[in-house]
């Protein structure tokens, strides 16, 4: 068996201890096989050693040769040939061969091999057998047959057939090593009637570390007859006490342990050819014969050359397969990067990742741990087990890809879920604490056919407490559990490629997120600055309104009412322009809103005519104040105070400016005011001063007329669709003045100042008492108290909470209520409460009355079932 060809197969002078190769070894004296002889000489061509059987071949004893010049022993022609071939030696392990060389006159011809062992030249010779095979020609034909093999399995099987045909051995096996050092017979060619070893496994303990190193250096090895007595080298040690290094010698004998190993198998002759791929021992051609056998040196040279060519072809095939595989993997990595770059969310989708990677690194399940989020797909540990695994990976895995086919060896508790995840490859995506994409492989239950018990205990042998040769080579089966199919080097390289690709995407996303955060922060700072600017402008405007209203007010009541009306006008204008994110708003809506706020049913006497014009937000509040004052004056002193009417017409001229005409008729006789009030000032000066337009006011006996020009820069656009009037007017305020008469009212408001104004407005509408609450908890306490409110006004947003719980409680009791808000149309009321009226802040008595008006004509809601 192939392991038999390795077991104890060291240079005869190499220290050997098969039980523990790291222990202090025992030196074995130099021995060679007797089918040839050996002569060693120094760099000055003086014979320093010879094998004890040299006289059997050339008639000279070692004693007669030692210390003599080589020229006194070998023929001049032979020395000349040897010298020439020695000049061709290149490299530390080079060997040159010569065929049919007459070393000593009258002693026949020899096939000779020569090589260096340090500064010593070693010459090996055996009688020429007339084997004049042309190795290159023979091997060329063998290679041609190999190239026709389709697939690796056929390639290996054909290699075994070619070696058997060349050497004539009874059995030829292709023996492959795994990463742990154990091996398996993966191809075989045998003489009929001989048992097959195909599929048998041999443990790593059968293959000593020294033998592996030796079989890379010396790829050809033959044992012609296990019964032949080895021949010693004379002298055994040099003057410095060292044996001769026979690592590259073809004649090198083997240890008694190896001979006993072969005898136990019934093998009489053995030959092995190393298969070296990428400088490492991939496997062996292991040959057995059940009788002594020594192929001629020509056939042996051809076999050695075939082994070298076979190794190169195998390496080429594997590299081609790996290159194709890695090319496909790179394409997957490119698609992966492109997909993640477009949608970072797919990176946490374990199902998607598993499908993407499955063609490159086969796995049974995928786990993703990214930014504290966890995703699993396929056969994997559960969430708790996976989190524990990530913790363990952070302790044992570096920044590179980590792989194992035996997870329980890293995390003992993983043995509990080996049926789902016995092995893994972890691809880190960040620095510690790391994020991972983990590919799992489930347990591969398989029966390993060992050639004898791999756990055989150490027994005393002829050479002491050492591993004795196996005496039984019958198949010994073992069920391997808890391990997965190992990840190949190519798969690990692909995993590293994926790691680089995913890490690049993650870093790019991180940079993008950082950029977005910076941008959001800048936008937030800009927003805060803009908000601060607008608030200051509004405060300044209100301060001016207060100051100017106070200077024209006759009584405190008229001051409060006028100021409230003007602030409400501003609020309504802001509601309209903020409903579309501070965008342009319709002129007709501005006029309709102001008319509806003050005129009630009289608003039907305001005739509107003109295109559907959108006014820029910056001009909207100014025009709202102008129309507010015009309508207020008309309602108090002008056409609308009597039975008259107002016509408001507008158009857009050629340069895009907005022209507005105001005309009153049918009212009391009009006279020009004797003094200029703040309202008149707003009408006459706001548009020229704030908007850069013009304003003309004419006080005719039949009614006030006005003409305004708003520059085109304040006109956003003219819509093709005509402007329509808004909803029909609400009932007059007088109709709801007593809507709350005799009722206890609940007011939920978290601002004390607004709550005080709210209390005044509710009492003005007839409320008997107002129960105020700043929080939801307090409001619910009031509802459970002795006083049962008959109406409620709820501020929708209360700091970090909303008043929805209070609204639900009121709805369950059948108590009518309103929402109040400063968010305008952006208020997000749940569907179940979508019918609840909403009053916008700031609200006064009139605004609150108009909000209550529709409810005054509707029966109270019934309690929920």
What's the gist of this structure?
The chain has 865 residues and is an alpha+beta fold.
Q: What descriptive keywords fit this protein?
A:
alpha+beta, Beta-Lactamase, 5 domains, 865 residues, disordered C terminus, disordered N terminus, 23% strand
Polypeptide structure, described:
With 865 residues, this protein is an alpha+beta fold. It has five domains: 2-11 and 133-230 and 249-319, 2-Layer Sandwich (Beta-Lactamase); 31-127, Beta-Lactamase; 327-444 and 481-506, Beta-Lactamase (2-Layer Sandwich), CATH 3.30.450; 563-719, Histidine kinase-like ATPase, C-terminal domain (Heat Shock Protein 90), CATH 3.30.565; 734-856, Rossmann fold (3-Layer(aba) Sandwich). It contains 20 helices and 37 strands. A hairpin with a 2-residue loop joins strand 14 and strand 15 (373-378). Helix 5 packs antiparallel against helix 6 (152-167), helix 6 (152-167) runs antiparallel to helix 9 and helix 13 (556-578) packs antiparallel against helix 14 (587-599). The longest helix is centred in the middle third of the chain and has 64 residues, at 489-552. The radius of gyration is 52 Å and the shape is rod-shaped. The two termini are 89 Å apart. Residues 1-28, 576-581 and 857-865 have low confidence and may be disordered.
Tally of individual domains: 5
Q: Enumerate how many helices there are, as a single number.
A: 20
Helix content: 25-40%
The name CATH uses for the topology of the largest domain is: Beta-Lactamase
Strand element count: 37
CATH superfamily membership of the largest domain: GAF domain
């Amino acid at each position: 068996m192939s392991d038999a060809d390795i077991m104890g197969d060291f240079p005869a002078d190499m220290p050997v201890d098969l039980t523990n190769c790291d222990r202090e070894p025992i030196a074995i004296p130099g021995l060679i096989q007797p089918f040839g002889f050996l002569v060693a000489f120094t760099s000055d061509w003086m014979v320093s050693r010879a094998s004890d059987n040299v006289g059997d071949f050339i008639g000279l004893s070692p004693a007669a040769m030692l210390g003599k010049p080589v020229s006194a022993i070998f023929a001049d022609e032979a020395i000349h040939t040897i010298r020439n071939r020695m000049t061709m030696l290149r490299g530390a392990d080079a060997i040159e061969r010569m065929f049919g060389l007459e070393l000593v006159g009258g002693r026949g011809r020899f096939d000779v091999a020569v090589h260096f062992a340090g500064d010593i030249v070693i010459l090996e010779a055996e009688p020429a057998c007339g084997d004049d095979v042309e190795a290159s020609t023979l091997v060329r034909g063998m290679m041609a047959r190999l190239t026709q093999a389709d697939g690796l399995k056929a390639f290996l099987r054909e290699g075994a057939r070619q070696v058997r045909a060349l050497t004539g051995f009874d059995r030829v096996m292709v023996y492959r090593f795994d990463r742990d050092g154990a091996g398996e017979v993966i191809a075989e060619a045998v003489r009929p009637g001989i048992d097959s070893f195909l599929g048998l496994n041999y443990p790593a303990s059968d293959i000593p570390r020294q033998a592996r190193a030796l079989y890379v250096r010396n790829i050809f090895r033959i044992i012609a007859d296990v019964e032949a007595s080895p021949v010693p080298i004379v002298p055994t040690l040099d003057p410095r006490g060292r044996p001769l290094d026979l690592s590259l010698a073809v004649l090198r004998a083997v240890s008694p342990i190896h001979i006993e190993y072969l005898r136990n198998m019934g093998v009489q002759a053995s030959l092995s050819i190393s298969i070296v791929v990428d400088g490492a021992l991939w496997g062996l051609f292991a040959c057995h014969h059940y009788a002594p056998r020594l192929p001629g040196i020509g056939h042996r040279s051809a076999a050695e050359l075939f082994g070298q060519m076979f190794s190169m072809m195998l390496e080429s095939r594997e590299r081609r397969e790996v290159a194709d595989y890695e090319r496909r993997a790179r394409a997957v990595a490119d698609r992966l990067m492109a997909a993640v770059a477009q949608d970072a969310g797919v990176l946490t989708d374990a199902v998607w990742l598993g499908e993407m990677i499955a063609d490159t690194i086969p796995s049974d399940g995928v786990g993703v741990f990214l930014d504290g989020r966890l995703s699993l797909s396929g056969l994997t540990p559960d969430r708790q087990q996976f989190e524990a695994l990530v913790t363990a990976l952070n302790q044992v895995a570096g920044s590179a890809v980590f792989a194992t086919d035996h997870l329980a060896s890293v995390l003992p508790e993983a043995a509990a879920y080996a049926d789902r995840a016995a092995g893994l490859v972890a691809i880190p995506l960040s620095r510690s604490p790391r994020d991972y994409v983990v590919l799992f492989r489930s347990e591969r239950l398989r029966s390993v056919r060992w050639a004898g018990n791999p756990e055989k205990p150490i027994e005393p042998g002829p050479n002491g407490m050492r591993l004795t040769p196996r005496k039984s080579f019958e198949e010994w089966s073992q069920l391997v559990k808890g391990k997965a199919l190992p990840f190949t080097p190519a798969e690990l390289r692909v995993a590293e490629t994926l790691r680089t690709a995913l890490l690049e995407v993650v870093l790019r996303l991180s940079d993008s997120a950082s950029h977005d955060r910076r941008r959001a922060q800048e936008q937030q700072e800009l927003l805060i600055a803009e908000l601060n600017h607008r608030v200051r402008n509004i405060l300044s405007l209100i301060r001016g309104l207060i100051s100017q209203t106070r200077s024209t007010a006759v009584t405190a009541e008229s001051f409060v009412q006028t100021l409230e009306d003007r602030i409400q006008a501003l609020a309504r204008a802001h509601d309209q322009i903020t409903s579309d994110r501070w965008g342009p708003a319709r002129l007709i809506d501005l006029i309709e809103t102001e008319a509806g706020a003050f005129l009630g049913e009289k608003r039907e006497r305001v005739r509107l005519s003109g295109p559907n014009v959108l006014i820029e937000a910056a001009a909207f509040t100014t025009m709202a104040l102008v129309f507010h004052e015009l309508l207020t004056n008309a309602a108090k002193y002008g056409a609308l105070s009597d039975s008259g009417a107002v016509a408001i017409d507008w158009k857009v001229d050629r340069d895009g400016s907005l022209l507005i005409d105001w005309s009153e008729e049918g009212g009391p006789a009009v006279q020009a005011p004797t003094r200029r009030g703040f309202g008149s000032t707003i009408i006459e000066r706001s548009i020229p001063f704030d908007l850069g337009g013009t304003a003309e006011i004419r006080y005719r006996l039949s009614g006030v007329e006005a003409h305004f020009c708003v520059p085109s820069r304040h006109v956003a656009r003219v819509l093709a669709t005509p402007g329509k009037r808004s909803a029909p007017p609400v009932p007059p305020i007088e109709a709801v003045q007593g809507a709350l008469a005799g009722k206890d009212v609940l007011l939920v408001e978290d601002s004390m100042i607004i709550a005080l104004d709210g209390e005044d407005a509710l009492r003005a509408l007839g409320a008997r008492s107002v129960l105020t609450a700043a929080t939801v908890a307090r409001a619910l306490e009031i509802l459970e108290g002795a006083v049962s409110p008959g109406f409620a006004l709820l501020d929708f947003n209360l700091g970090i909470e909303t008043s929805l719980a209070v609204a639900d409680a009121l709805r369950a009791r059948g108590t009518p209520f309103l929402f109040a808000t400063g968010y305008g149309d952006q208020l997000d009321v749940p569907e179940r409460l979508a019918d609840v009226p909403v009053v916008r802040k700031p609200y006064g008595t009139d605004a609150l009355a108009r909000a209550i008006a529709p409810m005054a004509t509707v029966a109270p809601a019934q309690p929920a079932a």
